[in-house]
Structure formats: structure tokens, C-alpha cells
Amino acid sequence: MKKSQFISLGILLIAVTIFIIVGAFGRGDKDPVVHVTPTPTPSATTQPLETPTPTNEDVTPTPSPTPTPERTPVVFPTVDKGYVSSQSTETTTWYWGVLKDENGIEYPTFNQQLNKFVDGFDYVFTNKIDGKKVVTLTFNEGWDDKDNRTVEILNILKEEGVKATFFLTKEYMNVEANHDVIRRMHAEGHQLGTRGSVSRQLQTLSVDDAINELLSMEEKLQEILDDNTVRMVAYRHIESFSRRDLALVSELGYKVVLWSYNYNDWGVLNVAEEQKAFNRMIDYMFNGTVFSFSASSVNNVNLLPKLIKEARSQGFEFIQIDTDN
């Protein structure tokens, strides 16, 4: 190799060495480039909501629904027809009187002749509560009530806060105009009882026909009230009754309700006669007196507020018939 070639090669090596040294020192004062994939910042729309852990203080218990009591349709008792037929068909009317006890205190009573008709049956003559002064109001319906006296009586009872017992006849129930009145009696908490039919009293019918007569009235009541869970709870005769009648109605589950006071209230009384009738009511107001009034009588519309006021002034309370005992 020629001398000139050695010189050229040496110069080349020196140049390369200088280039390498300059390049190394030129990048040494700079941060190295590191390629890092950036982590995205969560946004409000992508960040999941954190569900708080409930505490005893934060939890409001959900109240349990109040159960609705079940109401079952009425099932009428099976009548022992043999027992009913074995009872006497001799009839009597109901009447009562007043006696004095050994202390001179008067009380309502009835005699032994009537006792043979009612003995052994579940009946009410007086409606007493021992240790209290109580009386009971009962009202009798007949055919219809074209003058709406019953509505006036219901208005008085509602205003005074008194519950009574209404005895319905088949004829009264068959008048469509009376249906709203019957619904009102029931809705306002008055007891409903049956009197049977005005024209076909029980003792004039066979046992089967008498049963059908009373149960047809029950069906009519359920139709009027649109409720097959209700029934009439008591029975009151219209004119006369027999032991067979009482046996039949007792077998059907009615409480026999007699009375310990009534008066001739179906006529129109003048002022003096009304006052006399009112005085008699007060005279015969004892613990347990069961008043029997016509629901279509204008006399009773006039006298009822006075009777309620006077009874309360004497410490009496008004109660309904206990039909469970």
C-alpha cells in the first residue's frame, strides 16, 4: 500500500471517531424519549356510580299491607222440621204489664199464661245490662212509607248518635222506593230484623212454606244490599204467634225480640194526646225497656227527640239487641 493511501485511511478513521464522539455528547444533555401510552381520564358519563351501603338510620321499612278480613257468604242453618212440627200451633198476642217489687220499684213483666209460649226459646223482653241504665229502640215497618217518616226517624237517630233495630216486612221490602232507605239503615249501623209477611203470617203456612217465606226475604235483602254476607238477625211477629213459629225462627238463627213498651201510635194524635203518650213512655222507662214503635208514625217523629233527650237526662244509654247470646 502506498504511503498516500495510509494517510487517507488514517484521516477517515479520525473523522469517524470524531463524528461518533460528537453525536454521543450531543444527545447526552437531552432527556431520552420514552413512548408511553396515555391512560384516559374517566369522564362523568363513563365513571360507574358507587352504590352507598345502607345503614339502619337510612333504611325506611316498608309497611306490610293490612290484610282485608275475609267475608264469607251466609250459610243458613238447616231446620229440624220434625222438631218444629212437634210444637204447638196455639196462638197468642203479646202483652205486658208493670209490677212493683218488695221495695216499691216498678218493673215490666208478663204473666204465666204468656210464659208457656216463650219458655225455652231465646227471646228478648227486656234488654238489661246489670249495673247500668239502658234502653233499646226498635221500629216496625209495614207495607210502605209514602210519607217518608222512616227517613225522618233515621235523620233523628243519626243526629243523636243512636243505633236502633228495624223490623222489615216482605211487603215493605218489595217496594223499590224503600230500597235506598234499607241501604241507609244498614250503612248507618242499625240492626235489621224480619217480621215475615203482613198477609201470610207464619202460623197460617206449612213449615216448608214458612221457611221459604223467610229465606226469600233474606235473598231480597242481599239483592238490595248487593252483599251475600249479610242477613237479618232478629224476628218479631206482626199480630200473633205460636210456639211452632218461635221454634221455626229459632232454628233459622233469629233472636226473638218482643217488647216491654208500645202504644197505639199508628193514628194521628193531637197535642194533648201526644203529651200523654210521652208521659207514659217516661213512666215506663226502666233499665232494659225495649220500646216498640211504628217507623211510619208521625207521632214517633215528633216524640223521638224528646224521648232521647229525657232518657239521657236521667242517665240512660241506648243500646241494640245482643243477638249473639
Describe this structure in words.
There is one protein chain. Mean pLDDT is 85; it is low at 18-38 and 40-46. The chain has helices at 3-27, 81-85, 112-118, 149-160, 170-173, 179-187, 207-225, 243-251, 271-283, 298-313; strands at residues 91-92, 97-100, 106-109, 123-124, 134-140, 165-169, 191-196, 234-235, 241-242, 255-257, 290-294, 317-318. Strands 4, 5, 6, 7, 8, 10, 11 and 12 form an eight-stranded parallel sheet that branches. It is built from ten helices and twelve strands. With 325 residues, it is α/β, with parallel strands linked by helices. The protein has one domain (81-318): Glycoside hydrolase/deacetylase (TIM Barrel), CATH 3.20.20. Helices cover 37% and strands 14% of the residues.
Short characterization:
The protein is α/β, with parallel strands linked by helices and 325 residues long.
How does the SSE layout of this entry go?
Blueprint lengths: L2 H25 L53 H5 L5 E2 L4 E4 L5 E4 L2 H7 L4 E2 L9 E7 L8 H12 L4 E5 H4 L5 H9 L3 E6 L10 H19 L8 E2 L5 E2 H9 L3 E3 L13 H13 L6 E5 L3 H16 L3 E2 L7
Parallel strand pairs: 4-10, 5-6, 5-11, 5-12, 6-7, 7-8, 8-10
Antiparallel strand pairs: 1-9, 2-3
Helix pairs in contact: 4-10, 9-10
Features:
14% strand, 10 helices, two-stranded antiparallel sheet, 12 strands, globular, TIM Barrel, single chain, 8-stranded parallel β-sheet, alpha/beta, 325 residues
